[in-house]
Design goal:
Keywords: NAD, Oxidoreductase. The chain is of the alpha/beta class. Helix content is about 45%, strand content about 15%. It has 19 helices and 14 strands. The protein has helices at about 10-25, 35-40, 55-60, 70-75, 100-110, 130-140, 160-165, 175-185, 200-230, 235-240, 265-275, 280-295, 295-305, 330-340, 360, 370-375, 390, 395-400, 415-420, and strands at about 5-10, 25-30, 65-70, 80-85, 115-120, 145-150, 170-175, 195, 315, 345-350, 365-370, 380-385, 405-410, 425-430. It has an eight-stranded mixed beta sheet, with helices on both faces. Strands 11-10-9-12-13-14 form a six-stranded parallel beta sheet. α1 (about 10-25) crosses α3, α5 (about 100-110) packs parallel to α6 and α9 (about 200-230) crosses α11.
Amino acid sequence: MGKNIAVVGTGYVGLVTGVALSEIGHNVTCIDIDEKKVARMQQGESPIYEPGLDEIMKRSIEAGRLHFTTKHEEGFQGKEIAYIAVGTPEKEDGTADLRFIEAVAKDIAQNVKQDITVVTKSTVPVGTNDYVLKLVKENLAEDVSVDVVSNPEFLREGSAVYDAFNGDRIVIGASSVHAGDLLEEVNKPFGLPIFRTDVRSAEMIKYAANAFLATKIGFINEVANLCDRLEANVEDVAAGMGMDGRIGAQFLRPGHGYGGSCFPKDTSALVKLADAVGYEFDLLQAVVDGNKRQKLIMVDKAKEVIGSLKGKKIALLGLAFKPNTDDMRESPAIDISRELLLSGAEVTGYDPIAMENAPHFMPEGVDYVPSAEEALQGADAAILVTDWDEFKNLDMSVYENLMAAPLLFDGRNTYSRDVVATSNVEYYSVGRKPVN
Ligand code: NAD
């Protein structure tokens, strides 16, 4: 039977969680403090770009299983489970900012009138769920019992809906057997493998998984930089490495650095978490530092090839941190354009989906145009930042015909070198020999 569930925070994680839980038959109320967002969602419109989300959202709203509100009191009414899915951004010192988590814990305590299981979906440092349990208990308005469950989220932006129904595992770390059983029952209809553990190990699984993936990307990026200097082809190297079952072929695609709302902040937070208990996580610190460097490799290459960038018109193709999302957080486009502007270049940017978000994250002084063609028109060079399908499908003749000089720096190894070789485009990519 469907459970009555509140989900607090309707970002990429909260909204997808709420929608997915309602799709499998639970009665869900999503709570957010952002009135504009809530008004849009009440109309069945998703405030974030996530393929497939609008469709399921509308279906669940029509079926009466999915509601949205800005009022915590209304949202928690009659709920036996409260998911926390608010942001845990990076503080200036690299640690995780738990302000939003603390606020929600207090909101839950003040508003619940029945026993409640608090489920933390947000990525939080080890020990945070114990702290949440304490906070809720200390601030309770009614005499009810409270449990906590760490249930970290592994979805990937851009395929979040698919991942909700097809993920590799659901991790449940509960403060009591009863709470763990309850969460297992809630998640059973997804039909995915469920891994039960203690609260702290569940919290650690999320950080360790993200840190490992970031390390894998960091590693292949370093190998690519070496290939670049030794005239080997990183694509072949990665393919040959990935055939080894112990290594695995995924996450071996080099590029100009990872971004997004998770890897950068979660790797920093884990380094800081280690610091706090007197342990130096040198390996992960090297990954963090290496990624900062990596974001500028295409600008460095452009300087090497062109010389001074002063007055040069440079087109940025793609601004989002990866394809199929409008998320701009920590996108390499930000560092790249800042460095280009500092070097005196004129920067024109285009993204198929992130145009609305981009100006809030990018440095002042970037021009935005509504198509790749307009960005390339008269450009002295182009940097391919995000490997959207739209760019993958661009014919080389577009670069040849529109640019002042067809000079392309591909930070995502989007094109096959053989295809580029049939054109006049001068082409530089990551860990592969230049073409033309
Ligand atoms: P987000 O910033 O997109 O959304 C957070 C939402 O919470 C916002 O809509 C905000 O208005 C709302 N909010 C803040 N305080 C609130 C309050 N007191 N009451 C109600 N709503 C409130 O965040 P996100 O990207 O969905 O990430 C959420 C968490 O999940 C983070 O800890 C993140 O690390 C983790 N996570 C994110 C992803 C991802 O791909 N985005 C993947 C796995 C885990």
